[in-house]
Write a structure and sequence with these properties.
multifunctional enzyme; lyase; about 25% helix; binds calcium ion; binds cytidine-5'-triphosphate; about 220 residues; Rossmann fold; ligase; two-stranded antiparallel sheet; 8-stranded mixed β-sheet; flavoprotein; phosphopantothenate--cysteine ligase activity
Length: about 220
């Protein structure tokens, strides 16, 4: 942690990270959420801080903790809050890594009172949330922008499509087909695809090691 020799590669760099799920309110007591643990994003935050970066970690509801003097945690609940906070910080950062499992849809109307079970069926109308990553890509200047892609089929093609459509420098493909990969556990199996179409496939690893691989790739690419 100490940079006595002033040699940590990301000293003087700011890194924004999103992590965890978002919760989209249905009524005062209920929400639509997902099983993201937040673990991958918190490991990336720790790896960035261990390389000397000043980290802004914008996180949905999780049980993860990170006590490091270089990590500032910004807790949010909904996709809209995550969007606002991410845009608050984006212009000042050198790198942004969006690992959050943002809800794609939210209830169009949030009931102001608890919904009663009076009928035998209930229909909720959902509308799309804003795509945070795509909006950063559209506003990108000097920033190195990294997204994730969670795919179950046509993985490389779908991930490449997201890389281009969202104007990213790098995408981390997570395959849910691989046992031990994804959302909930302590391990992940990823493939990096960069904007020069370099494809690097990794073995199943701990999320801590995946975070190290990702920071090493970013350090190389930004020439830090
Ligand atoms: N993402 C985001 N804001 C959203 C949805 C997704 O910032 N409203 C980001 C995620 O954090 C991730 C990337 O976009 O870095 C890809 O998320 P993913 O769910 O794989 O793709 P989507 O673009 O949402 O498309 P789909 O779910 O239909 O595959
Ligand atoms: Ca999605």
């Amino acid at each position: 942690e100490d940079d006595i020799l002033g040699k940590l590669p990301l000293r003087n760099k700011k890194v924004l990270i999103t992590a965890g799920p978002t919760y989209e309110a249905i009524d005062p007591v209920r929400f639509i959420g997902n099983h993201s643990s937040g673990k991958m994003g918190f490991e990336i935050a720790k790896a960035a801080a261990n390389n000397g970066a000043e980290v802004i970690l914008i996180t949905g509801p999780t049980h993860q903790t990170a006590s490091h003097s270089l990590i500032k945690i910004v807790p949010v609940t909904s996709a809209q809050e995550m969007y606002s906070e991410t845009h608050n910080y984006f212009k000042d950062v050198d790198v942004a890594i969006l690992s959050a499992a943002v809800a794609d849809f939210k209830p169009k109307q949030v009931a102001s009172q608890k919904i009663k079970k009076k009928d035998s069926t209930l229909t909720l109308e959902l509308e799309k949330t804003k795509d945070i990553l795509a909006s950063l890509g559209a506003n990108k200047k000097h920033q190195y922008l990294v997204g994730f892609a969670l795919e179950t089929n046509n993985e490389i093609e779908n991930a490449k499509g997201k890389l281009k459509r969202k104007n990213l420098n790098l995408i981390v493909l997570n395959s849910l087909n691989d046992k031990g990969a994804g959302f909930k556990g302590d391990t992940n199996k990823v493939t990096f695809i960069d904007d020069k179409e370099n494809i690097t496939e990794f073995q199943l690893k701990s999320k801590t090691e995946v975070a190290t691989d990702l920071l090493n790739k970013i350090i190389k690419e930004i020439d830090a």
